[in-house]
Amino acid sequence: MSEPGPDAPRDGPAAADVAAGDPPEEPESAGSGASGSGLAGSQVSDPAAAGSTRAVASSPLSPTPVLPGASRPGAASHAYPRPAPLTPLLVAFGIDLLLALALVAGLSVLGTVGWGFVQGLRGLDGAQAAPDLNAVIAISLSATAISALAVYYFRRNANAVERAASWRALWRGSSWGWIVTAPIVLTTCSTLIAAAALAQGLDVTPTNQVLGPAIRAQPALWLTFAVLIAPAYEELLFRRVLFGRLWAAGRPWLGLALSSIAFALVHEPPGLGAGRGAGVLVLWIVYAFMGAVLAWIYRRSGSLWVPYLAHAGNNLLASLPLLATG
Description:
This protein is mostly helical. Helices cover 61% and strands 0% of the residues. The longest helix is centred in the N-terminal third of the chain and has 36 residues, at 86-121.
């Protein structure tokens, strides 16, 4: 489903994701030569870039479109769409993000009210009817998941061709290299940054520390959510929708920067997170770096499966200390 608004090529070339398509990747090597002057005569060196050819042909950004990795006689070996106009693109990005945040807030309130209503029917009132820790976590995570899925579905949905291309791209050797190394790099860097901050007396307690008691009480349930489910909807929102919109419009580095900042602020909301003072800035750096790495490997691999699995690996490594801490 294409998203409304005068933004990037809305159905632009893509390679799909966990449940969605991905924008065109910038290939690591030039593609093979091809005869002809249109898509029908092009050879695509990267299967992840072979997504929606119908949409490429109709893209307003390039009157003679060439998929990344494809070439034509007399053309450069690397041809990418011209960047889309910035203002409408930023407006569309802002709509995506604000819509997601509004849905999270609304669904969280609705979930809390619904919980109190159910407890009231059971004869509880006042403090007894308030959600306990597990209920608060469940309401918050469920609201975030539903919001991300809704924004993905209505704003940057994908087709079966894109999803198939993403699945094929997953099985390249380089994709699994990113999947294995990214969690190690992210965990090592975050640990070193946190240690340096603690040595300076900064409070760098992350908001997700609240998951510790829940994980220890019901490890199978919450590890499944933290490791398998949460990375899926976060990748759909931050990489597929937010980063992917600017990437498909020919502005991948701007997309990487803005989506990473959004990723950091959503994980540690200013004034609402567990961190305090300058420690919040440290947490933003850690999360922004994580978002940037995941966006980068998404772009390099051409498959959202890759950052999803890397994200899952990172969350698993981050959950182990919470599981062990008494």
